[in-house]
Design goal:
The chain is 22% helix and 27% strand. By secondary structure, the protein is α+β, with helices and mostly antiparallel strands.
């Protein structure tokens, strides 16, 4: 799959682009089931290969399958997630938006458990990643469950990538950074069905709400960079930075 001129223009103007039905439904189902298994065995040997986080602020005594918030380094240990990250339809869209050659920079499954998942504060990804130039960075946020307003879908501030990198302040006791002077009324909710992907620019302001539903909101998020990007200031570079060959291109 390649993007249309209108889709590319929307991304350039707004700093994000939602594309439905990009990841095959059978792959999304397998990923969802595997995440459910890993959550159920969060303290077991297979999950120990991964970095796992739980809902912020909860003491370890309260951790359970219902409190897992993030699973990291999946592509190194789980073939189906590597298949997702290298899926030709996904890679073609990335190349259409940031050019080539590209590499997989970082990835994680981000979860909002039913009636537990807390909000993610507003931020710009490059406040964390520090990739230069920022146009060489893109985030590919894939819904593995239908992402709705009720269960905490993504929200974006259209055109905010044109403001440059804003000053961010750390929230005490958390890993979160938030931009000064953010007005949440500017954000637009972007629901998307399972298998759909939202691409967003490294400077686009985004956030997600709490999960007020009885359903999981599971996602697999891949971050790609162009291989000519300067990563010297980034503290999040994986030692497994994975160059990608776009073999599906003609």
């Amino acid at each position: 799959m390649n993007l249309t001129p209108d889709q590319k223009r929307f991304y350039q103007d707004n700093g994000y682009l939602a594309v439905e039905n990009l990841i095959p439904s059978e792959l999304a189902v397998r990923e969802r089931e595997r995440i459910a298994w890993l959550c159920a065995h969060w303290d077991g040997a297979e999950a120990a290969r991964l970095r796992i986080t739980h809902e912020p602020g909860l003491p370890r005594s309260q951790w359970s399958r219902q409190t897992v918030r993030g699973l990291y380094d999946l592509t190194a240990h789980e073939e189906m997630f590597r298949e997702h990250a290298l899926h030709p339809s996904l890679i073609n869209c990335v190349v259409d938006l940031i050019g080539k050659p590209i590499a997989l920079f970082n990835e994680q499954a981000l979860l909002k458990p039913p009636s537990v998942g807390s909000p993610k504060p507003p931020h710009q990804d490059n406040a964390y990643f520090q990739v230069q130039p920022v146009e060489a960075l893109i985030t590919c946020w894939c819904a593995l469950d239908d992402a709705t307003i009720e269960n905490g879908c993504m929200q974006y501030v259209p055109g905010s990538h044109k403001r440059g990198l804003l000053k961010h302040t750390h929230i005490a006791g958390t890993t979160h950074q938030v931009p000064d002077g953010f007005d949440p009324a500017q954000a637009v909710a972007v629901p998307i069905r399972a298998g759909g992907v939202i691409f967003h620019h490294g400077l686009t302001l985004h956030l997600s709400g709490e999960n007020r539903s009885k359903n999981w909101r599971r996602t697999f998020v891949c971050h790609f960079v162009r291989q000519d990007a300067d990563l010297s200031k980034s503290v999040t570079v994986s030692s497994r930075l994975l160059p990608v060959t776009n073999e599906s291109e003609s």
